[in-house]
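Supplementary Methods. Inverse-folding protocol.

Structures were first reduced to a discrete structure-token string of length 165. This string, shown here, constituted the complete conditioning input.
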């Protein structure tokens, strides 16, 4: 069976117009739907869908954060990423995203309001992140800015997860 995504030359060049993201790494919004929807949690109107390019380089992390909409992480090239998911109660779960054959998954869904963090598995990883209803920074929370008991619970459940704060 042919791979879903072709191999890309290493390293994947950084797209020149990416800007720093508050969670870490660099991004650029590439698509924002003009269709507007009521956010299911009463947060007002949101675009139906948004898409960003997101790059993590060696030594960078996507710090623990949550988004109040569903998010898809789609591997686009370079090295894979280790993506952490946490519902705020049980132990965090780790998933690896990367090229088919090198890693187990090429995409991962993150349900709305779940905490997430990531690190690259090599020098550079490029991803597409799709959020629906569309991303708005008003719906984005960094865990390090959250309640202290939640931070302590995460570190107690998995001490390795604390390095992504």
């Amino acid at each position: 069976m042919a791979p879903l995504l072709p191999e890309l030359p290493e390293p994947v060049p950084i797209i020149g117009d990416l800007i720093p993201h508050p969670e870490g790494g660099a991004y650029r919004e590439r698509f924002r739907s003009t269709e507007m929807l009521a956010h299911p949690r009463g947060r007002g109107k949101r675009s139906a869908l948004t898409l960003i390019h997101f790059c993590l380089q060696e030594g960078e992390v996507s710090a623990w954060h949550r988004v109040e909409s569903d998010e898809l992480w789609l591997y686009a090239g370079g090295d894979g990423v280790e993506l952490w998911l946490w519902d705020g109660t049980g132990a965090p779960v780790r998933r690896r995203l990367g090229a088919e054959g090198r890693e187990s998954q090429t995409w991962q869904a993150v349900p709305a309001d779940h905490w997430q963090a990531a690190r690259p598995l090599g020098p550079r990883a490029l991803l597409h992140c799709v959020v629906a209803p569309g991303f708005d920074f008003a719906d984005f929370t960094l865990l390090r800015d959250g309640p202290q008991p939640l931070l302590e619970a995460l570190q107690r459940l998995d001490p390795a997860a604390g390095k992504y704060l």
